[in-house]
Amino acid sequence: MAGRNHPYSRTLNSRPSNIVDTHRLIHSHRQPQANPAAVIEAQQREIQILLRDNQRLAANHVVLNQELAAADQELRHLSSTAAKVKADCDARVREVYESSLKTEAELRSLDAMSVELVQVKSDIENMTVETKELTAKLREINEALASSAPQLEGFPGIEEELQTMRQEIKRGRAAIEYEKKMHASNLEQSEVLDKNVVSMAREIEKLRAELADAEKRAKAAASAAAVPAPPGICGLRCGVFKPLLSFQLTDYDYLCVCSYEVLQIPFKVPGIPLYFQWLRLHMVATIMLSITPCSRFVY
């Protein structure tokens, strides 16, 4: 396209017409009658013309190569531009397609929303009817309150009574909480006492067993004794305690000492309170006094 107005065509067209005449002269001078000097001169002129034409052709060739390179570069640029344009077109088509899909989805959602809108409209109509009914009822209630206002003014002490009742309810709740706490503490104490009673019952059973064993030993000792026993009770050898005693003992104290000798019941047991130990010895002494009369031990 760019070679239509190329200078090479103009050069070929502008070639002097005497070249053809020169060729004719050369062919005509080839005859034996031609002058060699004229022929040589004509050939030189033709050679010069050919050289100039060759130079013009070389220049035209260089120009054509440059134009071809420029055209090739322009073609590459156009190809890259076409690829970019195609990519842009594809991207735009893709965007348009995606937007069409989104629009279609939105249209579907709008269809669903239109159904919901119809339902909402019906609900609004129903709520409007209900609001009117409630407004009418509220108006009736306000009228009833307005008519009963003079009657309410005749009871000024109701609020005070309500306040007093609230305070009494608070006091009752506090008392109930206190009773709950006391009940819990009493329950704990009762559990402790129950445990103590159970332990005492076990101790009493143990004492009864020991007492039965002691009665058996006493009967065996009374039947086996051949001589009267020294001063004491029940034939017991209480004289062994004389070095330990520096005061006059009662029958009860003496029985406690003798119960330790016969029954091997210690005065103090580790881990048992003194009150229960005293109760233990008291029970033993009471049972022994009820079995055999005792005399005072004096020395």
Detail the poorly predicted runs: 1-23, 25-29, 226-255, 257-269, 292-299
Biggest sheet statistics: none
Secondary-structure-based class equals mainly alpha
In angstroms, what separates the terminal alpha carbons?
A: 163 Å
Total DSSP helices: 6
**Strands, total number:** 0
The SSE string, one letter per element, is: HHHHHH
Q: How much strand?
A: under 5%
**What Rg is obtained from the alpha carbons, in whole angstroms?**
72 Å
Give a nutshell description of this structure.
The chain is built from 6 helices and no strands. It is mainly α and 299 residues long. Belongs to the FLX family.
Describe this structure in words.
The protein is mainly alpha-helical and 299 residues long. Among the domains are: 102 residues; 105 residues, no CATH class. The termini are far apart. The N terminus and C terminus are likely disordered.
Primary descriptors:
disordered N terminus, mainly alpha, disordered C terminus, 299 residues
What is the strand and helix layout of this fold?
Elements: H1 7-13, H2 18-29, H3 36-153, H4 158-224, H5 251-263, H6 274-291
Helix pairs in contact: 2-3, 4-6, 5-6
